[in-house]
Amino acid sequence: MKRRDFLHIGVSGAAVAAAGAAACRPADQGPAEPGAPAPSEPFELEGLSVSELSEGMGSGRFTARSLTDLYLSRIDTIDKAGPALNAVIEINPEARAIADALDAEREAGRVRGPLHGLPVLIKENIATSDRMQTTAGSLALVGSIPPADAFCVRRLREAGAVLLGKTNLSEWANFRSTRSTSGWSGRGGQTRNPYALDRNPCGSSSGSGVAAAAGLCFAAVGTETDGSVVCPATTNGIVGIKPTLGLVSRTGIVPIAHSQDTAGPMARTVADAAVLLSAMAGPDPEDAATRHAGAPVRPDYTKFLDPEGLKDARIGVVRKLFGFHDKVDGIMEDRLEDLRRLGAVLVDPVEFENAESISDSEYEVLLYEFKADLHAYLAWLGPSAPVRSLEEIIAFNERNRDREMPYFGQEIFLQAAAKGPLTDKAYLEALAKNHRVTRKEGIDALMDKHRLDALVAPTGGPAWTTDLVNGDHYTGGGCSTYPAVSGYPHITVPAGYVFGLPVGLSFFGRAWSEPTLIKLAYAFERAAGIRRPPAFLPAADLSI
Fold first, then answer.
1. How far apart are alpha carbons 359 and 485 in whole angstroms?
2. I need a surface site. Which of 84, 87, 107, 309 has the fewest CB within 10 A?
3. What CA dihedral angle connects 164, 254, 257 and 515, to 10 degrees?
4. Whole-angstrom Cα distance, residue 166 to residue 114?
5. Would you place residue 321 in the very low, low, confident or very high pLDDT band (cuts 50, 70, 90)?
């Protein structure tokens, strides 16, 4: 069995107010029928970068409050009405108050940095200790109150970001069923792709990808275990950065697996994603992975935004990850030529010498770690947790089948519940194999052999049609697994369109190589100028 068959589009990892705080459709419905089309008038903030928004606030053109109001109006117009994207599961009732306080700080001469007053949306499996919910999309966690913000949320607040609300996701980060539909949760319903509304947004950071693409915020935060930042990014035509494991704290994120989970930025440009990553990253005393010597204390990734960044860079082309879609291959050949034109030295092809499959061992690790890490998260929630174990969640889902399992079940939960402790030989051997194959004998060996700065491959195929009857039918390809399992960084950048549906080009490499990858991705993006905003078509235009 191939990994995509049972994980459905690269799972992502990482549950405070009353249930009535949610701003979403009834959770037992499937995709809503779109109403009126998107407004024909251009959105005032469309295409404005973080630097332009910051300059606008400095000049008095914008305030944090005016930006917040504009984005909230945009959400009302195209997310809850119009094309009905259903990307935002909940609006922060304190968003305007936060914006007003940040405006007062600016008036008093205090500006915290480039994020000061900029509205962001965060995935709903990232804890906030405020009036918003943190449920991973599950009704089982409605009403729980996290004892603290997730560490990355605390960093965003300190940087001056306005937490506008939370985004819908694939429930439990797409780790509940072997027949799931990405972008659907029991709490939030189904999220829709803004490029073609009948198409899937990919998971599990579905809402974050759609929100950033459709201009519902300046940028959004997603989480990934394997593919759940980069897949929603590529299918929604934006930039996604999956950082090195330990660059961004995992504390306060509803988990799948501590050996692969991380949060990451999702934005329309590499520069905007770099600003957001700089704010999120940093050592957390409660997360040992962030204390690794390779993690910078206060990074500033914007200093690596070099338009000449591809000159003389040695880049390996992983041809084994091509060949799943002829139109995607055609786009990739054009983009490889762009890399050459911009001064890169392409080593083409390069191949991983150890072809040992890690499909089964990765899945084994995720099952073991999900059970252990979820129990630890529920214990962290404390007395407010309405369920205290995976077994209680399974029982809750059975009692509430009509709302929680109207389309697909919980086969993965049942498999995880049967696993033993993390001292089991089967777990330890699977984890060791994963790291050996993807690190020492994988990415590191390949880059050492060819003296490479990065590897490139297509991120994945174009979006498939959303199908609640049969579940996801992923179109093939995808290069997320080696970076995800190794814990190494991965960036995807818009590369082209197949019948108007976006596809991305991936850059990935060694641990802690974010500066190099950002430099390469920025130079490519700036010169290629591929991205165009979504048109909210009812279906893909097969004539283009």
1. 10
2. 107
3. 20
4. 21
5. very high
